[in-house]
Amino acid sequence: MEVSHVNGDEEPRTTSQQYPLVLNRVKMQGAVMAVQPVIKVAGICGSLRKDSYNRGLLNAAIEICKDSVKGMEIEYVDISPLPFLNTDLEVNGTYPPAVEAFRKKIEEADCYLFASPEYNYSVTGPLKNAIDWASRPPNVWADKAAAMVSAGGGFGGGRSQYHLRQIGVYLDLHFINKPEFFLNAFQQPSKFDSDGVLTDEETKQRIKAVLLALQAFTLRLKGKCE
């Protein structure tokens, strides 16, 4: 029988007796790690263009989250398959398959990151359409945290954000207030490459600040902060 080292008057323990204690300690440590919440973010882009600057911001946010924001995962949720909102398409409390799939993604997310370009001083038609589909009964946006980023000319898409905030009031969607993120995508030096990929490091740090604020606010709303 192999005997472990003992001190003083302690009873000697065999390695077979020690093993359950070690195993239980490992299980307890694993349980502690398991309770750390992983925030699931639905990333939604208001532009349908593949290489849009706003899609570039969202793609950058996904990569930044993977690399340097622990406890948060962003999934891009495509809004292009959604039909125009038409309540005639609602049959016996169900929605078209593309709408059902979209609503499920929104419902399962802990919070949202919108990349919202500005069209005519407002949000885009596709984004408003997506918002409206997910707000049909039951409203699956309700009581969740959200953040937004925008790229464009001049104000950098800022007016779309103010309209999005107004929409969020009725949806019971809670946007972070700071930091705000607007980016003039046409100002030199260019922040994106020819494929719409964000290359500017300072802008990436600004996006990271938005993500950290969204993470903190989401945990606060979910009641997991001390």
Molecular structure report:
- The protein has 226 residues and is of the alpha/beta class.
- It has six helices and six strands, in the order αβαβαβαβαββα.
- Strands 1, 2, 3, 4, 5 and 6 form a six-stranded parallel sheet that branches.
- Helix 2 (53-68) links the parallel strand 1 and strand 2.
- The longest helix has 21 residues, at 201-221.
- The radius of gyration is 23 Å and the shape is globular.
- The model is unreliable at 1-23 and 25-34 (pLDDT under 50).
Total strand segments: 6
Helix/strand structural class: alpha/beta
Overall pLDDT: 87
Q: What spatial form do the alpha-carbon principal axes imply?
A: globular
Beta percentage is: 5-15%
What is the gyration radius calculated from CA atoms?
Answer: 23 Å
Q: What ranges have pLDDT less than 50 throughout 5 or more consecutive residues?
A: 1-23, 25-34
- Relative helix content: 40-55%
Through-space gap between termini: 48 Å
Count every helix, treating DSSP H or I runs of 4 or more residues as helices: 6
Characterize the main sheet.
6 strands, parallel
The SSE order reads HEHEHEHEHEEH
